[in-house]
Design brief:
alpha+beta, about 30% strand, single chain, nine-stranded antiparallel beta sheet, about 575 residues, eight-stranded mixed beta sheet
């Protein structure tokens, strides 16, 4: 057979395929093709239109009757009114309010410790800046789900122990990808900050250094001094004009070298004095820093604010002092009483003094709820716009993700909170849905249709009409009053979405057999059919005349309203406290 250009090309291609097959055969440990997943492949909708709600794009902004379009986890558009795009799945949020997803700026998690045999470890086991929270399993499932139910959609996860604890990363709080190794969460930013805490060891045998706050401060300072020396040594070795020996491995110190890092240092301050001391360390070494507060900053307000450092603030309020007996009263100091009284004013006072403040759910005492304490802070003068900023735009800016998180705006990640029955911070409101990266998480199921009330009813049979009153209680307890028959009770009543069905016994109407009735409820009108015992089908209609679903005693609401009245809080504390130097307001 004579060669042709086509035959030559085919032979060349065959040779290439054979060679490639041989290479694959000889290649060691070649990965096998992964098996397809068992079951039906999930293909969730990624194009959504949220319509009819009031949208709060950012603190102080508002769009009525808005349409929010989401595609592939990103917000495409936010506009007032207008029809949703054809092809998008539509979610009707009429009467509800949509807020930006909340951001948790400090969520402690377990992080893997460096290998004990690593020659680059620091001599003190509490100094581990080279480790990262993103290298671990991430937040526990229960912690993540609890935050989502509160409206949080992203969090900065940080190592939970040590002095130089390691680096934090910003992740989304949606369900993790179980096919991915590690935490499986979407990472928005790695290296959000490096955390430092003045953690102390015990005085047992052997004692764990440092055993005091002074020792912890000394260790932090010495570590930064060693890092500066090492940076100089490494620079000198790089130039190496005198043939210097390379320095010993020191991964821990190398992780802190400014030229090789982008750190903001978050100092975990146990009280207001530690916050001031942390600021001095930051100034000494020229660090970009922030403070993880304690909740008692108001006791040294001027000193804390004068540091100029942003504050991640816990809403940690002291327990109510016990003063039941004379002995209890003698044990409670004036400082304790004033701290208990003034703690809820802390966010408002810091903000009014010029501090940059973000809020965290971390450090809450056992038994306290973040939402309750936040409402208390609002009652004590913090505005709702400021509270929203402390949970959205401010932490987003602190964490370096302000271009992707914290707002409802085109190009931002589709993290949203949908609230029904009021605003986000109202006691009677309810978070209906939370959207994380365009995925909907139903937090509270939408209440079903409640037809309770009195209805003017008319049953038609041929050319004859029977009128009366239908009373519905608790959705499915139905009673009829006709001219000749009072208190006729329906049985086997069922309400499925907007479809109502029930049976009427003929003997209650001086008739024989059983009558089956069905109807559809829409806009205060029920229309449907009823079937008599002979099988003949007729029509009926009911018009709502007196709804009672939302009636009843409103004393509980009145009580809630009274609790939400702003507290009468003095702008300054009484003179005796200032005289002792405990509080500076």
């Amino acid at each position: 057979m004579k060669d042709t250009p086509f035959r030559g090309a085919a032979v060349s291609a065959l040779g290439a395929v054979t060679a490639a097959a041989l290479v694959l055969t000889l290649a060691p440990d070649a990965p096998a093709q992964p098996a397809p997943p068992a079951g039906i492949r999930e293909n969730p909708a990624r194009w959504h239109a949220l319509v009819g709600a009031t949208v709060i794009p950012a603190p102080g902004e508002r769009i009525e009757n808005a349409t929010v379009v989401i595609r592939d986890g990103v917000i495409v558009s936010v506009r007032g009114g207008g029809a949703p795009p054809e092809g998008a799945r539509v979610w009707d949020y009429t009467g509800m309010t949509i807020y930006p997803g909340l951001i948790e700026p400090h969520l402690p998690v377990s992080a893997p410790a460096p290998d004990e045999d690593d020659p680059g470890n620091h001599w003190n086991a509490k100094v581990t800046p080279q480790r990262a929270a993103l290298d671990g399993a991430g937040p526990k499932k229960g912690d993540r789900e609890k935050l989502v139910k509160m409206g949080f959609t992203a969090a900065a996860i940080a190592p939970d122990s040590g002095i130089f604890r390691g680096s934090a990363g910003v992740v989304l709080l949606n369900d993790p990808d179980e096919t991915t190794a590690g935490h499986g969460l979407t990472v928005v930013r790695d290296g959000a900050y490096q955390e430092i805490a003045l953690e102390r060891g015990g005085f047992g045998r052997p004692a764990s250094y440092p055993g005091s706050e002074m020792g912890a401060i000394a260790l932090v300072r010495q570590t930064f001094l060693d890092t500066a020396w090492r940076e100089g040594t490494l620079a000198a070795y790089k130039a190496n004009p005198a043939g210097m020996e390379p320095p010993a491995p020191a991964d821990a110190l190398d992780a802190l070298i400014p030229a090789a890092s982008r750190w903001t240092y978050l100092f975990d301050a146990g009280d207001e004095l530690e916050a001031v001391r942390a600021a001095k360390i930051a100034r000494e070494f020229g660090l970009t820093a922030a403070i993880l507060g304690s909740g008692t900053e108001f006791r040294r307000l001027d000193d804390v604010v004068s540091t100029g450092l942003p504050i991640i603030l816990p809403l940690a309020f002291p327990k109510t002092p016990t003063v039941d007996t004379i002995a209890d009263q003698n044990d409670v100091t004036l400082r304790d009483l004033m701290t208990w009284e003034q703690a809820p004013t802390n966010p408002r006072r810091l903000l009014a003094a010029g501090a940059t403040v973000a809020l965290t759910t971390d450090k809450l005492p056992k038994g306290q709820k973040f939402e309750d304490n936040l409402r208390s802070a609002i009652r004590h003068g913090l505005s709702e716009d400021d509270a929203l900023a402390m949970l959205t735009t401010t932490p987003a800016a602190m964490l370096g993700v302000g271009d992707r998180l914290g707002r409802v705006a085109p190009g931002f990640i589709a993290n949203l909170v949908v609230v029904a029955d009021g605003g986000l911070f109202d006691k009677g409101s309810e978070i209906r849905d939370v959207w994380v990266e365009g995925d909907r998480h139903e937090i509270n199921e939408a209440p079903g249709l409640d037809p309770s009330g009195q209805w003017a009813v008319a049953f038609t049979e041929g050319g004859e009409t029977h009128t009366g009153t239908m009373t519905i209680k608790d959705k499915t307890k139905i009673t009829f009053d006709f001219e000749d028959h009072q208190g006729v009770k329906a049985r086997k009543a069922d309400l499925n979405d907007n479809r109502l069905s029930f049976l009427l016994d003929g003997e209650d109407l001086d008739l024989s057999g059983v009558f089956a009735v069905t109807g559809v409820i829409r806009d205060g009108v029920i229309t449907g059919v009823w079937k008599d015992p002979a099988g003949a089908v007729h029509t009926w209609r009911a018009d709502l005349s007196s709804p009672t679903a939302n009636g009843g005693d409103d004393s509980s609401k009145k009580k809630d309203d009274e609790e939400d009245e702003p507290a009468d809080v003095p702008e300054a504390l009484p003179t005796p406290f200032g005289a002792y130097g405990f509080l500076s307001l």
